[in-house]
């Protein structure tokens, strides 16, 4: 039934499908709560994740669904991307998100990641400021913060012609992390998200490693016929990072087998988006069951 409704809603546009999913998530959190088996717990970036499956950024842009996510069997969730100023059809802006987050009880039931980015109209020479403004405001609410470099909203930091801007953003963000850690007395891991389908991935991976970030989110379109390519890229990235930081894999993960494949290829955690829109809010439970059974047979 859900698949039929999702397919019908998708024909009206992605927003309709996402709205259907949001209603289904709230309902499932009440009538079919679930938690991952203890054996699926992961300790990554100094944080405890009840399970390896998280909700990717872009679905719950402002954190309004976060309270309903732990009962689905999700091990973590990432909201956003958050930007300083509101933009129509993209984000209601930083102040709205902070207002929502301030109402969530802490410590969070599952780790909360907050993806941050820049406004479209921000010139390249000021892009770093957008990231720093967001870091300052969300620091106390986030369990980790993601620098989203892949948003198609301005100069693409994946491309060689924007390399100087990329270095400025990365260096400024690391400096801000050190400052905020000293100011607040708490650490908040800083993760970089890159799109393996754009730009010079090897150079980007080297930048993330050299600046000693706490984690990497490796994204891609992940079409079904490209899953082997995704896995090969994930394996190469894992080898290049040489265990220096954990990798979170996202993009086109729709099945329990897909999750198992990403974890086997070197991912410490995975994020789902399209899978939960297409298959419904019980997908994390099915994935957790599959992973638990797989571990029991090994």
Explain the overall architecture.
This protein has 298 residues and is an alpha/beta fold. It has one domain (2-297): TIM Barrel (Alpha-Beta Barrel), CATH 3.20.20. It is built from ten helices and ten strands. It has helices spanning 2-11, 14-31, 94-101, 127-138, 163-184, 201-210, 227-241, 256-264, 274-279, 283-297, and strands spanning 42-44, 47-49, 53-55, 76-82, 112-116, 144-148, 190-195, 215-219, 247-250, 269-272. The protein has an eight-stranded parallel beta barrel with strand order 3-4-5-6-7-8-9-10, surrounded by six helices. Strand 8, helix 7 and strand 9 (247-250) form a beta-alpha-beta unit. The longest helix has 22 residues, at 163-184. It is globular.
SSE topology:
Layout: H1 2-11, H2 14-31, E1 42-44, E2 47-49, E3 53-55, E4 76-82, H3 94-101, E5 112-116, H4 127-138, E6 144-148, H5 163-184, E7 190-195, H6 201-210, E8 215-219, H7 227-241, E9 247-250, H8 256-264, E10 269-272, H9 274-279, H10 283-297
Parallel strand pairs: 3-4, 3-10, 4-5, 5-6, 6-7, 7-8, 8-9, 9-10
Antiparallel strand pairs: 1-2
Helix pairs in contact: 1-2, 4-5, 8-10
Let me know the CATH homologous superfamily: Aldolase class I
Return the string of H and E elements: HHEEEEHEHEHEHEHEHEHH
Radius of gyration, CA atoms, in whole angstroms: 18 Å
In total, the number of domains comes to 1
The CATH class label is Alpha Beta
What is the CATH topology classification name?
TIM Barrel
Main sheet, how many strands, which sense, barrel? 8 strands, parallel, barrel
Q: Strands across the major sheet, in which order?
A: 3-4-5-6-7-8-9-10
Distance between the termini: 35 Å
Give a count of the beta strands, DSSP E runs of length 2 or more: 10
Let me know the average pLDDT. 89
Number of helices: 10
Structure classification: alpha/beta
Helical content stands at 40-55%
Low-confidence stretches: 8-13
Percentage of β-strand residues: 15-25%
Give me the CATH architecture, please: Alpha-Beta Barrel
Shape summary: globular
């Amino acid at each position: 039934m859900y698949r039929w409704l999702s397919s019908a809603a998708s024909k009206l546009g992605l927003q309709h499908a996402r709205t259907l999913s949001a209603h289904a998530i709230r309902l499932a959190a009440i009538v079919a709560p679930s938690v991952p088996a203890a054996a699926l717990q992961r300790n990554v970036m100094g944080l405890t994740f009840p399970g390896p499956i998280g909700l990717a950024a872009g679905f719950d842009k402002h954190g309004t669904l976060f309270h309903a996510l732990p009962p689905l069997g999700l091990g973590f969730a990432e909201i956003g991307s958050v930007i300083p100023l509101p933009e129509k059809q993209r984000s209601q802006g930083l102040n709205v998100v902070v207002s929502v987050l301030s109402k969530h009880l802490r410590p969070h039931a599952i780790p909360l990641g907050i993806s941050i980015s820049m406004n479209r109209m921000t010139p390249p020479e000021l892009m770093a400021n957008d990231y720093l403004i967001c870091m300052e405001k969300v620091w106390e609410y986030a369990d980790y913060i993601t620098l989203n470099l892949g948003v198609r909203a301005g100069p693409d930091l994946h491309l060689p012609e924007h390399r100087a801007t990329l270095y400025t953003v990365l260096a400024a963000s690391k400096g801000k992390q050190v400052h905020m850690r000293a100011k607040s007395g708490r650490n908040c891991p800083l993760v970089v998200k890159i799109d393996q389908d754009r730009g010079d991935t090897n150079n980007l991976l080297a930048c993330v490693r050299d600046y000693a970030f706490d984690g990497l989110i490796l994204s891609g379109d992940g079409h079904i016929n490209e899953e082997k390519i995704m896995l090969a890229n994930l394996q190469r990235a894992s080898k290049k990072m040489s265990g220096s930081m954990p990798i979170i894999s996202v993009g086109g993960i729709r099945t329990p087998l897909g999750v198992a494949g990403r974890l086997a290829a070197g991912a410490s955690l995975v994020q789902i988006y399209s899978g939960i829109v297409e298959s419904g809010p019980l997908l994390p439970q099915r994935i957790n069951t599959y992973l638990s059974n797989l571990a029991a047979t090994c």
